[in-house]
Every structure is written in C-alpha cells, then in structure tokens.
Amino acid sequence: MGVMQTARDIFSYRKYWASRFGVAPFLPMSRAEMDALGWDECDVILITGDAYVDHPSFGMAIIGRLLEAQGFRVGIIAQPDWNSVDAFRVLGRPRLLFGVTAGNMDSMVNRYTADRRLRSDDAYTPNAEPARRPDRSVIVYSQRAREAYGDAPIVIGGIEASLRRIAHFDYWSEKVRRSMLVDAKADMLVYGNAERAIVEIAHRLATRATLDSITDLRGMAFVRPAVPDGWIEIDSTRLDAPGPLGAPLDPYAMEERALPGAQRKPPAGVQVVRFIREVKNQDRARSVIRMPSYEDVASDPVLYAHASRILHIESNPGNARALVQRHGGREVWINPPPIPLSTREMDALYELPYARVPHPSYGAARIPAYDMIRTSVTIQRGCFGGCTFCSITEHEGRIIQNRSADSVIREIETIRDTVPGFTGVISDLGGPTANMYRLHCKSPEIEAACRRPSCVYPGICGNLKTDHAPLIELYRRARAVPGVKKVLIASGVRYDLANESPAYVKELAQHHVGGYLKIAPEAIGEGPLSKMMKPGVGAYYKFKELFDKYSKAAGKEQYLIPYFIAAHPGTTDEDMLELALWLKGNGYRADQVQAFLPSPMATATAMYHSGKNPLRKVTYASDEVVIPKGLRVRRLHKAFLRYHDPENWPVLREALRRMGRADLIGSGRRQLVPAYQPAGTGARPEGVRRPRKYRAFRTQHTGLPPPAVDTDSKTYRRGPPGKKPPSVH
Asked: What phi and psi values does residue 360 have, to the nearest 5 degrees?
C-alpha cells in the first residue's frame, strides 16, 4: 500500500489580499474592534462555546491565528446568547464562511456528569459560570447562524462535531442519533485536527468556488444525494478485519465476513467464511465502503457495533478509504482522515503570534481552564494507545505529530518573557500522552499499511520504536532555560512505554515530579482491562519499582496517583471488589472518582450500547460483554472505589452479602467495611446534606476542568493502611 501520502504545507499558500491589514492584537469580538483594525467585514467568523483565550491550547485560537496567517480577516463570536439571533449578527455576515465549534470540550461532557447531572461550573467560562452554552452546542449555533445569514456557508468542526460525524450512540438520550452534519444543517463537517482542510476550504472559497464543489479534501464529511458514477462500493458487512487482536494478517489478503448483508438474523446453517480481496490496491482510491444506514444501526445494536468496528479499522491515513452512510434519502460521505502535520508545520502553527491571555473584554474574571494551561507547552499530538474509552485517537489520530525541540524551547522563552505572573514554573510539557514524543513505527511502509487499533496492546508492537532519548534531551534543555526554576509533567504518563526506558523514568522522577505523579491503570482485573485495551497490573508494578527507586536515590518522597474508572464495559461486581481490596491494601483513598461515560464514537461506547465486543469480529452469535448499566450498579461500582466513605458502607455491606463475601464486613485490616454505621451517615433523602462531622469525606473539587474524555479527573490520598493519609491537595 506504500508509504504515507504527503500533503501540501499549510503555510505554502499565497496570502489573501487582506494580509495588508497585518496581525491583530486579538481577533476581534466586536464591531468596534473591527473598526479599529480598519476592517469593513470579516472573511471568516468563528463561533465557539468557550471563552476566547488567545492561546495555542484553545482550538479556536489555533484555527483563527492560522487563517489570519493566510491573510484572512478572522472574527470570534464566543459563547453567544443562543436565545436570540442578534448575538450571531454582531460581526456582520462573513465574506467566506462561518466556522462553528462547541469548544475544547464536547458540550454534553462539559455540562453533565457521568450520572447525567448538571455540572455546577464550566471551566472554560469566565469565573466558571455555568449554563453559558446550550446542549449540543454545534447544532444550536449552526441553526442560529443560518437564521442570521441564510446564504453564508457553515462549516462545523471541533471535538463535538468530529466525534459525531457518523450515526452515533448518544448516552444522554440513550439512543442512536444521526450524523451531526445532518442535524446541524451545516454545509460541511471537518473532523480531527482540521488545519489542512480549513485552510484549503478558505482559499478555494476566496477564489469563488462553492462549498458543494469541494468534495475531495481529506478530513471532511458532506452530504450528497448518491454515490457518483465511477466509484466502487464495498459492503461493510463483508469486511471485518483484522480479526483477533495481534494477529499478523494482511486484511486485504484475507478478510472475514461479520454479518450476512443487512439481514437482521443470520440464516440457519450460515457460518463465518473467508474470502480474498475484492478490490485491487490500484482501485482503492476510488472505492468507498458502504456502512449500514442510520436507520439500520439505530434499530440494530449489533449492526451498530459492526459499524463502529469498521470505522476504527478505516482510520489510518495511510490506507483508510472513504465511508458512506445513508440517512433517509441522503448520503453522508466521509473522506479519509487528514495527513498528519509535519514537524515544520507544527512548529509554525504553535509559534503564531498568540497573545497567550484571555480577550481583554473579560477584565479581571478568572477562566479556570486558562489558569491551568497558561504556562504549559504542547510538544506533540495524537496517541497510539487505542484505549477504547478514550476519544483522542478518533479525533487526533494515532500517528504522533511532533514539534522540534528548538520550537518548544522558543515557546518556553516566550512564556517566561510575556505571560503575566510567571513564577519560573512550566506546568507541563506534553500532549494527549506525556511520553509519546517522537515515538513512531520503524518502517513508513508498515505504518501506512497497519490496521491495528493500538501499538501497545496486547503488548508493545515489535515495529514500534520506543527510544525516549529525544524526550529526555528535551526535558534537560527545558529546565536549563534561564529563568525557569521547574518543569513539571502533568500529562498522563504511559507507564508501559516508560518501562522500556528506565533512563526516562529516572529523569522524570528526579527532576519533573512535584511530589505526586498521575498514571492511569484504570483497572486491575483482566476482564475490564481487555475491554479497555490497557496493560496488566504487572506493568504498573514494574513502573512503580523504577519510580520509587529513582525517587529514593534523589532523596525525594514521591507517590504515584493511580486513576481508575468505575462501571466500564467488561467490569463485574467481583472486579470492583478486587480493586477495592487492592486500593485498601495499598493505602489509597480516592477523593474523586468517575464512572465510565460513553462518549460518541468510542469503541467502549459501542460495547455499552450493543453488549458486543468490536475489538473482534461482530456477529449475532459473538460473545456478550458484561455491561454495568443502570444507576444502581454504576453507583455501586463507584462506592467500591470509595470504600472508606461511611456514606457508601450500607450499599457495600448489602453487595458483599449478596456476593457471598460477608467475611469482608468488619473492622479487621483485611476486611473492607465495618459492621457499624456512624450516626448521621448512610442512606438519606435526596437533597439532605450529611452531618458536618462527616462532610470531610465528600468528593473534593480540584478546581480543574474535566478533560475531554470520559476518565474525569480523579485524585487520591495515600498513606499506610489503617491511618488517615495526607491530602493530595
């Protein structure tokens, strides 16, 4: 299938004529700011559900500054009042297009907890004020923009639209919804990191092309009435590769039949068969995979799981084909993923002239998300971990895109010189994962042909280069920058990869940890781990041994903070009991825990909805996955993680008796919960607060925004068994 394709450099375009206006100190949010810049109109107007922070950790700032670098005049409408169309007319009609996003987070994850309760704050809003964005913000904003200027092209993107580009299960309504492109009535959807697509779209529209003529760009989805002539349709139900995880099969030489066409049940006597490839490699560029229709996946959970599997298989930019899915009388067409950015492009993108502070209109208001990242530096994008509960791979891809060390050092110097209140501490050098910087496949040919969902599960791929030397050198250069006192690593460390480089663990433990380091085992039982695609607990023990060894050698008392997910598909009550006993035996007390939140398009979400495992071929007869559904079981699994909270003791005692483990009820060191119940704790009417004496056991709020994946922030207190450990906070 060849080497990964190349793409045009995003900074190689001839600048649009409006570049004569120069660089704006901030992208304008009002007519007065436009007048001050000498603009009579905006070429592009970006609508976002976040407050406008001109910092490269905020997607709208990146897209806005990138389009500005192309010469376009870009305005921002941040957190508009969606109850009136007036807020969408504040900057006038854009000359080229509206770009619409919910912001850095999915609006539903931002607004609701995993138990579907409204959150009390919004970290991406001034003073964390809640209720400043609507549910499914992209749909609402797009419809209002259409109402404001009916003839203006609308392009939707960002993580909310990206993860809803196809028919998807919606946890908050417990049903399968249509592609967001259809519901938003937008002209086009750009998914993943959309820099390549949005730059090309803007330049084509500037030359008077129409949006309906733009159908050839990677990383875009659009609606068309039918499959054009000359395309080869492949029924997705005849593709179910790569088979069992880790099997070194060529998916085009031997593929498996998962479902008998669109039939609801397999005919009697029909068995899974194998057959050779139907489309020659030279014809792949004009082949499209026909997915089961929206109506089919909405009515049949097994077909939904099958569609999820095919979507993830067709995710490598080196070999992915176009997908098409019927929605009523229209076809939602999804082009292959974008080609990853080169190091040169990444450097230029992150060194655009960001103000690195919130827009002045917010005055002295605090924006918690900005407070968290104002001195952090992104060094890479993407993740090849493939964790089934996480949406990073579906959004950013599994090929790591790296910045150069020189570019990172220049940004650190910029932070030192320009960020107000800089104290000499860089809060993070990272990305989706702390230690995937410059890790890649040993062969471009293998990388372009690979269809494995993970490079590190069930074990680290032999083709993966795991040399951490470039990252170690980057850390050393960063902390040697004059004026920098400390460089912390706040992104999650992939500890199974770190085990491959003890020198990295040493560097990390001795120079870049502020007492506690967060890592994410997520579970310890093989049942849930196999559905998460996470390494076994042995990898955790190996990393802990190295971490403790190097911390002690440096004379530092430091602890690991393990994160766990409750109620993940594949998790039984027995798995959670095992984890609770492990936590108690190791002296961990969870201050904050999170139940699994089925985010759109994630593989684990397909498990949750269908009860099937899309990591292997999906058939009506394939094995069922244990799914902890319902509020009662989800709360029980969270209670196991907070075994030390008296409020949870009644439900845990009931569960232990039901499970035949009443021997774990008592006050012994090897028992989980005591037999007595402190006065004022336990079951109480809804809305009644617990007595002040026990209020210290409440989940502590860190003040940090929940991440854009479903493993919301969890912190732990640690200490010897039997003693109240010190607070992490």
From this structure: -60, -20
C-beta neighbour count of 138 within 10 angstroms:
31
Q: Tokens at residue 285, please?
A: 């560029």
**Per-residue pLDDT tens for 647-662?**
999 999 999 999 999 9
Do residues 175 and 267 share a domain?
Answer: no
Asked, for residue 679, whether it belongs to a domain, the answer is no
Entry pTM: 0.89
Task: For the chain, give percent helix, strand, coil, nearest 5.
Answer: 35, 15, 55
The angle formed by the CA atoms of residues 122, 436 and 476, to the nearest 5 degrees, is 95
Neighbours of 107 (CB within 10 A): 24
**What tens digit of pLDDT does each residue of 141-185 get?**
999 999 999 999 999 999 999 999 999 999 999 999 999 999 999
Using CA atoms in the order 260, 263, 264, 268, what is the torsion angle rounded to 10 degrees? -60
3-state secondary structure 237-272: HHCCCCCCCCCCCCCCCCEECCCCCCCCCCCCCCCC
Strands (E), 279-353: 287-290, 322-327, 330-334
The verdict on residue 358 lying in a domain is no
The CATH number that applies at residue 71 is 3.40.50.280
Question: Which domain, by its residues, includes 102?
Answer: 17-225+329-334
Among 358, 456, 470, which residue's Cα sits nearest to residue 403? 470
Same structural domain, 193 and 282: no
For residues 222 and 215, is the Cβ–Cβ distance under 8 A? yes
Both tokens assigned to 111: 């607004």
